[in-house]
């Protein structure tokens, strides 16, 4: 039986969970206008596709649709778990691509779970089920799933070793773990090179281009103290720098594509909506940042902060 952790009222864990739930209740979805998320900007989205697949119009899910049968899975796969499903955007995309049919999704946010279920039904998907669950204490039945997917959820997980153990046991012998993750520095402890380069670009922008949807001028990026994360989202990038290392201890990573975000993510966060399609300055500026990120990753001056991965239990 699939188990969900229950936090005791008044516990420290419960207080932290409440802050995380409140954050995701109010956090805008990636596609909503005005864009706050770096990867919602269309030129950036096409760049991510190019870095993953080699083509601007071929997404990660397009790649998976071709790859998974080559790895022994018949499509649509039989049973799937979505870890940290959010509002189910990825799950519905996997369904549209013919990759999954029946799916159970878990998220710590009751509001996200409600939205995911409602949006699945609205899309005519009746074999998706969503439940409130904490990835730090999730339990799954052994050898029960063909596919387990995670999109931007592993970097919110403290108990990575435990979660990967649970996932490895829950997958069938030929099952796979699919991840699209922030794997950059824990707690956004960006490198000096990364900060200097990002702030150089930010300094070139006008106040108008740096103004957030809340009317605040985006400051230059800097390291934040633990109290910042405790107040906003205690789970944010809690062990992001260890995601791949922990995964490799329990899984063989059979396919991996880094797709950057090392400059684009910190620069565009909260101001991506200012870079509108058709704006010649905005597109030229973004192309310059994209080119710089490509070059600096190629030379090793920057690592990739985001990656897509396909893995199989050892």
Automatic annotation (TrEMBL):
<dbReference type="GO" id="GO:0008757">
    <property type="term" value="F:S-adenosylmethionine-dependent methyltransferase activity"/>
</dbReference>
<feature type="domain" description="Methyltransferase type 11">
    <location>
        <begin position="82"/>
        <end position="178"/>
    </location>
</feature>
<dbReference type="InterPro" id="IPR013216">
    <property type="entry name" value="Methyltransf_11"/>
</dbReference>
<dbReference type="InterPro" id="IPR029063">
    <property type="entry name" value="SAM-dependent_MTases_sf"/>
</dbReference>
<dbReference type="GO" id="GO:0032259">
    <property type="term" value="P:methylation"/>
</dbReference>
<keyword id="KW-0489">Methyltransferase</keyword>
<protein>
    <submittedName>
        <fullName>Class I SAM-dependent methyltransferase</fullName>
    </submittedName>
</protein>
<keyword id="KW-0808">Transferase</keyword>
<dbReference type="Pfam" id="PF08241">
    <property type="entry name" value="Methyltransf_11"/>
</dbReference>
């Amino acid at each position: 039986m699939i188990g969900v952790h229950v936090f005791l009222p008044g516990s420290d864990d419960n207080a932290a969970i409440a802050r995380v739930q409140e954050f995701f209740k109010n956090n805008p979805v990636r596609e909503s206008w005005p864009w706050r998320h770096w990867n919602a900007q269309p030129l950036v989205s096409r760049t991510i596709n190019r870095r993953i697949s080699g083509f601007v119009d071929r997404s990660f899910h397009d790649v998976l649709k071709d790859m998974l049968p080559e790895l022994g899975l018949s499509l649509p796969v039989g049973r799937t778990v979505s870890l940290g499903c959010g509002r189910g955007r990825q799950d519905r995309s996997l369904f549209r691509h013919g990759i999954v049919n029946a799916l159970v999704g878990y998220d710590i946010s009751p509001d996200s779970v409600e939205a995911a279920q409602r949006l699945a039904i609205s899309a005519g998907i009746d074999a998706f089920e969503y439940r409130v669950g904490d990835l730090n204490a999730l339990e799954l039945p052994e050898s029960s799933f063909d596919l387990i997917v995670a999109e931007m959820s592993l970097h919110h997980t403290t108990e990575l070793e435990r979660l990967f153990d649970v996932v490895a046991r829950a997958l069938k012998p030929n099952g796979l773990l699919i991840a699209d993750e922030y794997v950059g520095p824990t707690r956004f402890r960006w490198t000096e090179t990364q900060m200097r380069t990002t702030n150089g670009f930010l300094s070139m922008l006008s106040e108008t281009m740096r103004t957030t949807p809340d009317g605040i001028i985006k400051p230059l990026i800097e390291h934040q103290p633990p109290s910042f994360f405790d107040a906003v989202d205690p789970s944010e990038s809690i062990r992001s720098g260890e995601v791949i290392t922990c995964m490799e201890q329990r899984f063989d990573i059979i396919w991996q594509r880094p797709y950057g975000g090392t400059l684009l993510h910190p620069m565009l966060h909260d101001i991506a909506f200012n870079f509108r399609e058709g704006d010649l300055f905005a597109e030229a500026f973004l192309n310059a940042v994209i080119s710089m990120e490509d070059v600096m990753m190629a030379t090793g001056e920057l690592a990739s902060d985001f990656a897509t991965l396909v893995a199989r239990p050892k």
